[in-house]
Write a structure and sequence with these properties.
The protein is an alpha/beta fold. The chain contains 15 helices and 19 strands.
């Protein structure tokens, strides 16, 4: 996205001697014409001269018939990675695209370019100064980026969610330990003890995670917290204090709005904690501390295992802060830590419900609109589910707070209106049952996901999905699994392009 594209195009057209003809309206076409005008006989030198005249986002690969022995790769804005193979060098926008060829990679920083040739790779800044980079061996294997017999990457990655959560928990609690104790818990990042409030920030599914992070932080750690949409943050001139912990969430670590919001919070003295699945991302490099989730590569555009791993990381953060602030007794810490360790096994149990959930999705697949409802800690799950339904199934979907249902939304409920209600929260049981009764009284068909020991729940809904019992603060991670499976099969019955939904990008970098 070239901010000064119009001015450059006008200047190129005015140079009649060069007889430049534009074949499109895109700003991209301006780049080769401008490089040609600045040609010095060397592609790298000509690109460097051109970069000084351009404003805005510019990440690209450039080749020329006039200098065929060089490939110039520029990063300004969007991500770019260089792979070091066996006698070959590869440029790509994402590590998952080239992991089948090599695991040795360099992630370019903003304002850098790479020159690939038969002799190797040179790294330069935009002033032409040489930069030293050592390739990193990424932990992802080619097998991790394959379908392995699954029909779609999304289904594979949903099934891998328990493993992603287990590995993320293991970063704080050793997987193999004889005696589980809060004293064995070690959070991987240094959080200042004088933190007075926390701001959680993200975009898309990461905003759903931020929402839940806020409520878990207040419930478990007893620390005041808020959440923000990254794209709105810097424009709203939010108040940030030096003793604020700013938690920036981005699975890719390259979400432009999130990166900009972090720079805003940094300029005001906040302590920044990045939560990302990519240890080599711009976000991880930009911040003081980074909690790297262990989900592995996620190929499908819709977030699945990276989302559940992010929620696990936020839960671990809240637990760590609760210990620092002494807001939980030692016995309570011990019990909660045991519940946290049990989460992956409980998630795996939810995946065994796949056949029944597939049948349910088939019964509802004809609907062109869907409501997801939750109260308290379950509303972020409803928010995430509605977002995923829109992305994957391409139908209207809306998330509602159960307590706000009467304020407008209930007027849309009529016979056979499809609703999924996330009902696994003990403290709001009475309110949840009342909500479902009101919806069914108006003709809605309600699928409820509730705790397996709540025997009366099935009498208040049309379809009941039993979820293993766990404390309220952990329950959202279990509710997500049936929602993801339901949405996947809903989209499958409607013959959607599940892994590559229309108009949606995996990483929003513009």
């Amino acid at each position: 996205i070239l901010d000064n594209a119009a001015a450059i195009k006008e200047s190129l057209i005015e140079q009649k001697k060069q007889n430049i003809k534009f074949r499109s309206e895109t700003d991209t076409e301006i780049l080769p014409h401008l490089i040609n005008r600045n040609w010095t006989g060397s592609l790298p030198e000509s690109v460097l001269a051109t970069l000084k005249q351009l404003d805005g986002g510019l990440t690209c690969c450039i080749v020329s018939m006039l200098d065929p022995d060089h490939l110039v790769v520029v990063r300004k804005g969007n991500p770019m990675v260089i792979g070091f193979g066996d006698g070959e060098y590869i440029a790509a926008s994402d590590a998952a695209a080239i992991v089948h060829h090599t695991r040795r990679m360099v992630f370019l920083r903003d304002g850098e370019l790479a020159v690939l040739s038969h002799e190797g790779v040179r790294f330069l800044d935009f002033d032409g100064n040489h930069i030293d980079h050592t390739p990193h061996k990424i932990p992802w294997t080619p097998v991790m980026a394959e379908k392995r017999g699954y029909r779609h990457f999304l289904l594979k990655e949903i099934v891998e969610s328990p493993s992603a959560v287990r590995e993320t928990i293991a970063s704080c609690v050793p997987a193999k330990i004889e005696s589980l104790s809060p004293d064995t818990f070690q959070f991987p990042c240094a959080i200042p003890k004088n933190i007075s409030n926390v701001i959680f920030c993200g975009s898309g599914s990461s905003y759903s995670a931020a929402m839940l992070g806020q409520w878990i932080c207040e419930l478990v750690a007893g620390i005041p917290a808020t959440r923000q949409v990254a794209s709105e943050y810097q424009q709203m001139h939010r108040v940030v204090k030096e003793n604020t912990l700013y938690v920036a969430i981005s699975q890719s670590g390259e979400t432009l709005d999130t990166l900009e919001s972090v720079k805003y919070a940094q300029s005001r003295g906040a302590h920044i904690l990045a939560l990302t699945n990519n240890p080599f991302s711009s976000l991880a490099r930009l911040t003081q501390d980074a909690f790297i989730t262990s989900a592995g590569p996620e190929v499908s555009v819709a977030a699945s295992k990276t989302f559940t791993a992010a929620l696990a990381a936020l839960l671990l953060l809240a637990f760590s802060m609760a210990r620092t602030k002494k807001s939980l007794s030692y016995e309570h810490q011990k019990k909660l830590l045991k519940n946290i360790k049990e989460l992956p096994d409980q998630m795996e149990l939810m995946i065994t419900y796949e056949t029944r959930i597939r049948r349910l999705a088939g019964e509802f697949a004809h609907n062109r609109s869907f409501f997801f409802i939750g109260r308290g800690l379950q509303f972020p799950v409803a928010h995430f589910a509605a977002l995923t339904m829109k992305e994957v199934a391409n139908i209207h979907a809306e998330a509602l707070l159960g307590g706000e249902m009467k304020h407008g939304a209930i007027s849309l409920v009529e016979k056979d209106t499809p609703i999924m209600f996330f009902a696994n929260q003990w403290t709001l049981k009475k309110n949840i049952l009342n909500d479902m009764d009101e919806l069914r009284a108006r003709g809605a068909r309600v699928i409820a996901a509730g705790f397996d020991v709540n025997e009366e729940m099935s009498a208040h809904c049309d379809e009941f999905i039993a979820i293993p019992t766990t404390p309220d603060s952990l329950a959202p991670l279990l509710a997500i699994v049936p929602a993801q499976l339901f949405i996947y099969y809903f989209a499958l019955y409607n013959k959607k392009d599940i892994d590559r939904p229309r108009n949606i990008a995996k990483s929003v970098t513009v």
